[in-house]
Every structure is written in C-alpha cells, then in structure tokens.
Fold this sequence. Notes:
By secondary structure, the protein is mostly helical. The protein has helices at 2-5, 9-15, 19-24, 27-39, 47-59, 66-77, 80-103, 108-130, 139-158, 194-197, 212-218, and strands at residues 164-165, 180-185, 201-203, 209-211, 223-227.
Amino acid sequence: MAAAAGVxxxxxxxxxxxxxxxxFGEDEQMRAALHSAIEQQPGEQPPFxxxxxxxxxxxxxxxxxxxxxxxxxxxxxxxxxxxxxxRAKKVAGEAVLAKGLSRRGVPSxxxxxxxxxxxxxxxEALSRxxxxxxPPRTLALELNATFRQLAxxxxxxxxxxxxxxxxxxxxxxxxxxxxxxxxLSVAAGARAPAAVRRRQAVSYRDGxxxxxxxxxxxCAGPRVELLH
Length: 228
C-alpha cells in the first residue's frame, strides 16, 4: 500500500495506527458528514424523514465507490476482530443520529431508538446495493426504499397489535392517559394508513367517541400514538 501511494511505510503509519485503521480511516469523516446532513434538514422535518434524508445525503458520497466498498465489506466479513470493530463503528453512528435528533427536540429515548433504526436501515440498504450486480438503483434510492418498506411494515403490523394499556397521551389531541393504544411513527402530513381509515370512531375510557380521521388530522407531530 505504501508503494502504491508512493510513500515510505513509516510515513503510512504516521496516519494509520495499524493495518486495520486503513479500513476504518474514514469513519470520523463519515460521522461528521452524517451530523452535518442532520443539521441541514429543515426544522419542521419529522424525525423519521430526517433519518432518511440525512442518510441518503451521505449515501450519495459512496455511489461512485461501489467496488471499493464491496471489497472492504468482504475483508471485514472475513475477520471476527474486524466485524467487532465494524459493529463499534455502527454504534458510534447510532450515537451521532441520536444526538442530532435530540438537538432537534426529540426526547432522548426516542432519539436513541431512531438512531438504531437509522443505522439498521443504512446497513440493510448497503447490503442490498452490494448484493446485486449491477444494482437496479443507486444506493441513495435503495436506502429510501428500505426506509419506506420499514414504514409500511410498521403500519401493517400496527393493525394486528393486541391492545396495550398506555401511560401517556396522544400528543396534541387531548386524549387522556390509560387508554389502549398502538404506537406508530409516521411522517407529519402523511395520509392516514388503511388501518386507520377503515375504522370510523373509537370511545376512550370515560370519554366520548373520537373519529380516527379527526385524531389523525390533529396529530401533526412526527410520532403518533394511534388508538388501537
């Protein structure tokens, strides 16, 4: 590697502590890019959309480096030690996402969960992109599709959840505590899913019936707790 770069081996080790560092030398730069991408998202953007768009922005920087990224992935997969270090890199990425979302006002527990979801989607999209030769779409589009598939699965699964005794209210709706709810993350302004549109109304404990359509319209935030 030193010969290919036209430098002495001693010069190479001034920038990389060991050979493993050659595989992970860009980690800090990528985390900084991810942090910057989060900061640049519009202030009114829902958290889930922030994850998707910021991740897609970083993914675009890898588009022309597919062979290099694929080779790196093969090398990491061949070593348990490298896989452990790669996992530590992903944990650091989760922290960057969580911190960025927290700075936008997302509660810390939700930000941490969304950070893990974001990295999982990034990992899945990268695996799909590298696993097809040639890939049918760009990495950014694959990432977008992965996030959207996850959202669709969550909506579909919410209709089959058993009732839960909630201890919180639906933000901005005035629905009291202690009602059965199903939890679902959605984008602000999104059309109510079929699971919601099929229901006409629901009565919560010691209160009048509430139209699901009205409830959906009043939940303007990025995270919504749907009556179930």
